[in-house]
Design brief:
- The protein is α/β, with parallel strands linked by helices and 237 residues long.
- The protein folds into two domains: 2-103 and 210-236, 3-Layer(aba) Sandwich (Rossmann fold); 105-205, Dihydrodipicolinate Reductase, domain 2 (2-Layer Sandwich).
- The chain contains seven helices and eleven strands.
- The protein has helices spanning 10-21, 58-67, 83-92, 105-121, 145-157, 210-222, 232-236; strands at residues 2-6, 25-30, 48-51, 72-74, 96-99, 128-135, 163-166, 174-181, 188-194, 199-205, 228-230.
- Helix 1 (10-21) crosses helix 6 and helix 2 packs parallel to helix 3 (83-92).
- The longest helix is centred in the middle third of the chain and has 17 residues, at 105-121.
- The relative contact order is 0.17.
- Bound molecules: NADPH dihydro-nicotinamide-adenine-dinucleotide phosphate (NDP) and ligand LZUJQKHR.
- The ligand O=C(O)C1=N[C@H](C(=O)O)C[C@H](O)C1 binds next to helix 5.
- The site of NADPH dihydro-nicotinamide-adenine-dinucleotide phosphate has 27 residues, from helix 1.
- Its EC number is 1.17.1.8.
- The active site is at residues 135, 139.
- This is 4-hydroxy-tetrahydrodipicolinate reductase.
- Belongs to the DapB family.
């Protein structure tokens, strides 16, 4: 597979290492200094673009690829208010767009566990909900995309909870996310239900970025020959 890396930071470099190890080729590395070069690439030169840049750049980068019909695997978080525009563009250009707030297989199992636990807990009003995410100090967005996906899983299970709030005391209709920035932590997410007498807690802790990067390379392999809007649930079916 010929891969364009968009965003050559911590994730871009880890993805490159794993992609080369799986026999793929990197045809371009697009970063802040040469971002304009993306406009010159064509779908004849690249089989896939893997986009891990930043919240301010992701939308434009993805749209550029979609218009060129270069399939995109995107992991950038913090830009999702514009995701519906990308979905419309994907349909309009008969393109391929794969998105995940977290590419780690372990986190995607954790998402399923979270949904199952939320359904079990929803009838039990004695339990308060608490969610927490901890990431390294360089992270630009807050809360993490993963924490938002977890909160959405809880909201879907609770009729009376309609939104999440970040680092705020929650109202009864809200799911709290508490976001911390600390050291070089790759990503730790906790969901906790607390009553007066006990608590139930589930945690996913990434030990490195390898799980995220491997999931993104596998997604790039999996979308070859596919069209439309795709995600981890499609791939892991
Ligand atoms: N879905 C998932 O599984 C995961 C998602 N992420 C997300 O991926 C994103 C990247 O994370 P990470 O690699 O740690 O971040 P980094 O800051 O280490 O890397 C991002 C890179 O993108 C560069 N960049 C800036 N502007 C552009 C542009 N216009 N086009 C291309 N590249 C640009 C940055 O340059 P400069 O720093 O000079 O601005 C930097 O080198 C974040 O949104 C993060 O939340 C991270 C891990 C897993
Ligand atoms: O910025 C990061 O590092 C990470 N971002 C993703 C997120 O916002 O959920 C995934 C992972 O937790 C690492």
């Amino acid at each position: 597979m010929r891969i364009v890396l968009i965003g050559y930071g911590k994730m871009g470099k880890e993805i490159e290492r794993l992609a080369l190890g799986r026999g793929h080729t990197i045809v371009a590395r697009i970063d802040v200094d040469n971002a304009h070069e993306l406009a010159n690439l064509t779908s004849q030169e690249a089989d896939v673009a893997i986009e891990f840049s930043n919240p301010a750049s992701a939308f434009t980068n993805i749209l550029t690829c979609i218009k060129k019909q270069i399939p995109v695997v995107c992991g950038t978080t913090g830009w999702l208010e514009k995701k519906s525009e990308i979905e419309q563009a994907t349909a309009a250009h008969d393109a391929t767009f794969f998105y995940a707030s977290n590419y780690s297989i372990g986190v995607n199992l954790f998402f399923q566990l979270n949904r199952t636990l939320a359904k079990l807990m929803a009838p039990h009003q004695a339990y308060d909900i608490y969610t927490n995410e901890i990431h390294h100090l360089e992270k630009k967005d807050s809360p993490s995309g993963t924490a938002i996906t977890l909160a959405e899983g809880i909201i879907d299970a609770y009729a009376e909870r309609t939104k999440w709030v970040n680092n705020e005391i929650p109202q009864p209709n809200e799911v709290p996310i508490w976001s911390q920035r600390e050291s070089t932590i790759p990503g730790t997410h906790t969901v906790k239900y607390i009553s007066k007498v006990d608590q139930i807690e589930i945690t996913h802790e990434a030990f490195s970025r390898e799980g995220f990067a491997l999931g993104a390379v596998i997604a790039a392999e999996w979308i070859q020959g596919k069209k439309g809007i795709l995600g981890m649930e499609d791939m892991l079916k």
